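Cross-posting from the modeling subforum.

Setting up a comparison between two proteins and wanted a second pair of eyes on the formatting. Protein 1 (sequence, then structure tokens):
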Amino acid sequence: MDRSTQLTARRTGPLGPVRTSASPPFSGHGEIGHSGTAVYDPGPAARSLHLRAARVLHDNWTGTSTVPSRGLYPHQWSWDSAFIAIGLRHLSPLRAQVELETLLDAQWGDGRIPHIVFNPSVPLDAYFPSPDFWRSSTAGHAAGAPRTVQTSGIVQPPVHALAAWLVHVADPGLSRARGFLSRLYPQLAAWHRYLLHRRDLGGGGLASVVHPWEQGMDNAPSWDAPLSRVTPAPPRTFRRADLDHGAASDRPTDLDYGRYVALASDYRDRGYADGAGNFAVEDPAFNALLIASEYALARIARELGANATARRARAERLTAALVERLWDPAEGMFFCRDVRTGELIPERGVAGLVPLLLPALPRDVADSLVQTMRGPHFGLGGATRLVPSYDLTGEAFDPHRYWRGPAWFNTNWMLERGLRLHGEQALADGLRSALLGTAGASGFAEYVTPYAGEACGAPGFSWTAALTLDLLHDHDHDHQHEPPGPAHNTAQGAVRASEEIGKGAKGGNQV
């Protein structure tokens, strides 16, 4: 019996827990508005999906962290690890904790969490930009880059505090015994301070990204205008390892890549100092995740016996700033703001829908976002199974090319939570069913075409598998933002029996 089979076989109780009447049984189809019965029976389809998703995470585990995919992304990525930990908590709360701890071990002195932590055993030519490009320990010395591990110098969206809270909720007893939150809280607080102070480049209270890779949606059309100011690095100065693992037609163009390299080189050569570069953008998804994580930090503070009032107030102030600076009521969605010109960038991307995650969003704003999601630009419940990354009617739309049209599992997972939070249960149920069906049918692809769900990018992608597991489990308590009661802790005792995927975590512990 292989280890993934052991993991599933040793669980007691159903693979997917009892769900409420608002949650549909997994059908693999994604009908909008279908209501389920009072008890969720996972059935063979859900059991198979659980097992396959667990296998992906087992295969991508390195001993201390999880790579997004073995071929295309052979190192540890920042927001990937946060999403992966959210899924891992259902298999092994211990391993989910180690995932985040390993990432935060590479945090810089100024508070930033780098977007890549490099595995020294991976050859330099396996991924570009490689450690010798970033030169973190030397170029990042003034910013407090660690000397014992090589990292990139840019960041990614701050999902980490939210992930840490959800991992804690999965097994509060284990978390408290290991001092998980008490150790991570100062690091997460420093990360937020960095973003709220060093990255408030527009002066309006929101964090700016200084490279498209930081926002995570690398070649989204929202970046086209600000990137046009960047002179690209000559093609002969770099080699794109990503094209060894995917079709060029699915990936960013050489011109875009040249601009990415030029921006990163300039940032490195300035010692990773913020504020002087020619690219600075306030992005709604990046800031929405910062706000969601600020709420999570408030819950963590309360769990640790500290006063959470200031953090909750900050989250509400940031929500107000997000609406004031990035909301366009006429278009019914949020847009990026180019800090260098001061203008909103009129490109409809999925990033402009992600603020639906926020509990303090004004009711009229939330309602407009739902209407936009269902309308002709994104087509949820009609033309599309999953929400595409870009406007279906936009001139730059391409159903196969990375963030210019395909649907991604992490953004749709966020939207499913946002829909449920704001009372759109039927739409959330349909999106959940579509996500589960598409994940399984695509082989847990990195991303898919928005119409037919055709697999694109890397197969066996970790966050797709991890978020599939999260959707297969009841997470109603996640929306209540409180630790589970005794009954849930009893159920999680069975889950802890599955902490057997892989070895080699810190101290040689089995995780």
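Protein 2 (same layout):
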Amino acid sequence: MIDRRRFVDHDGNWVFVSGNNAAAEARAQALQCRYFVEDDEDEQVDDVLRSCYNCGYRRWTSSSFHCLAIKPATTN
């Protein structure tokens, strides 16, 4: 399950609080996430496949990313 404590709501976008330089945390979060889907290979940035940084539901911001999977998880 997605640990929403690792994200903060910014105007409806759930932003990863650890930013874009916390691979270990992004990997740990992805291991818990049932919504993880592998992004296209050319869009992957982490050497470990199962990472939020490599997820198809991730959208980059200037300092982090927001997760598109959290919305459906909270509206079900």
